[in-house]
UniProtKB/TrEMBL annotation:
Residues 5-32 form a coiled coil. InterPro entries: Bact_StressResp_Reg, PAS, PAS-like_dom_sf, PAS_4, STAS_dom, STAS_dom_sf. The keyword Phosphoprotein applies. Transmembrane segments: none annotated. Keywords: Coiled coil, Phosphoprotein. This is RsbR, positive regulator of sigma-B.
Length: 417
């Protein structure tokens, strides 16, 4: 009897030790559950909340754990139902033990109908669920990963991309990006319109798919130069677009990746066809103006003045060269015919000197006048010119000379009479 009693005492002691161990183990797991930095909730198979740790309470902003545990039912919460929580709880219960069910990112606003909360705030979570069984009862363990900051960052990036995309797409000039292999990665609306393509119709294609081979090679060479130089380059090319020849000024610059290496080329083209046409027209008008100025100067430098019926005077001033003598001859010969002149006075009072070529051309002009039946009177020959004519042995036969323009006019008027 005593031995049996001792055995019972020993068994009782062992059981007490085991209970203490289990209590310590239970306390350990409860504390681990409670202190987990990840929100964890446990739901019964009927949707009733069975447990939630501290961080879950903080994120949801519930007034107390007692207010929701054993009271909140996910199947009865319109928000949980509409966002798919209830559906995924059931799915987790239907899965084999150990299978994980992952919900897509979901927003949750505390304070809405359903779970009671201290304040209103919205957060994003991604929930992973797995079923478990305890004493024959099924439960769903839900781990909520707070991805609010990630979602905010993604949304900020999406908004930034939409903002930049709006700028690029609504720009009135073609903007496009190609990878290192020359495939189009991006093209704005004006770029597609220039190609007469549907929206995004050029993406994935290369210049060889869109342009003649020689033009495609020019573009490929410029892309390689931009990638190698790693600085913007500017080029001007002519291209057939919509059946018309356009002149484009294109700036190409490399796009660098996270490693600092160029992985694509962005190009911005400006159609300067109208500008180049305006410049060409301006050059034409300038050339026309120069021609008019030259004709005016010729007329001013070789004026032909009718002073009486059948008498014209051409006063020459300044240095003479062969070109100017030729201009004078052209004006003189056409003027003789126009004015029916019989007396022509060439006044060289304002000419300081001439060279051999000019002297010879001058005499030829006088002889041409005589061939038209008019008499030539040369007035105002300076000593230097007279010396040159003598040294050259120029024959002035048939040419009347007078010392002054006044005496020359008197002679011409008398000869006409």
């Amino acid at each position: 009897m005593e031995s049996e009693l001792q055995a019972l005492r020993a068994e009782n002691q062992r059981l007490l030790q085991r209970v203490a161990e289990l209590e310590r183990e239970s306390a350990f797991y409860r504390e681990a559950f409670e202190q987990s930095p990840v929100p964890i909730s446990v739901f019964r198979a009927d949707g009733l909340l069975a447990a939630m740790n501290r961080v879950t309470c903080e994120i949801l902003g519930v007034p107390s754990r007692e207010a929701v545990v054993g009271h909140y039912n996910a199947y009865e919460d319109p928000g949980a139902v509409s966002q798919g929580y209830a559906e995924h709880y059931r799915k987790a219960l239907d899965e084999q033990r150990g299978e994980i069910v992952i919900m897509p990112p979901t927003s949750y606003t505390s304070g809405e109908e359903g779970m009671p909360c201290r304040d209103d705030h919205t957060f994003w979570s991604q929930t992973c669920m797995r079923s478990m069984e305890v004493d024959g009862a099924r439960y769903v363990v839900a781990v909520n990963l707070d991805i609010t900051e990630r979602v905010r960052a993604e949304r900020a990036m999406e908004e930034n991309q939409a903002f930049l995309g709006g700028i690029i797409d609504n720009a009135p000039i073609p903007i496009y990006v190609k990878d290192r292999e020359g495939r189009y990665l991006l093209g704005n609306q004006v770029f597609d319109e220039a190609l007469a393509a549907e929206r995004g119709g050029g993406l994935g294609k290369t210049d060889r798919d869109l342009f003649p081979p020689e033009q495609a090679e020019v573009f490929a060479t410029l892309d390689r130069q931009a990638l190698l130089a790693q600085t913007p380059i500017v080029s001007e090319n002519q291209l057939m677009l919509g059946g018309e020849l356009h002149t484009l000024v294109t700036t190409k610059y490399p796009l660098l990746g996270a490693d600092g290496q160029p992985h694509a080329v962005c190009s911005i083209s400006v159609d300067v066809s109208a500008l180049r046409a305006a410049e060409a027209e301006a050059r034409r008008l300038q050339e026309e103006m120069f021609r008019i100025q030259e004709a005016t100067l010729r007329a001013l430098s070789t004026p032909l003045l009718p002073i009486a019926e059948g008498v014209v005077v051409m006063p020459l001033i300044g240095m003479l060269d062969e070109k100017r003598v030729q201009q004078a001859m052209d004006v003189l010969l056409s003027g003789i015919a126009a004015h029916h002149a019989s007396q022509v006075i060439l006044d060289v009072t304002g000419v300081p000197q001439v060279n051999a070529q000019v002297a010879s051309a001058f005499v030829q002009a006088a002889q041409a006048v005589r061939l038209l039946g008019a008499q030539v009177v040369v007035t105002g020959i300076q000593p230097a010119i007279a010396r040159t004519l003598i040294e050259l042995g120029v024959d002035l036969g048939g040419i009347t000379t007078r010392g002054t323009l006044q005496s020359g006019i008197a002679h011409a008027l008398a000869a006409r009479a």
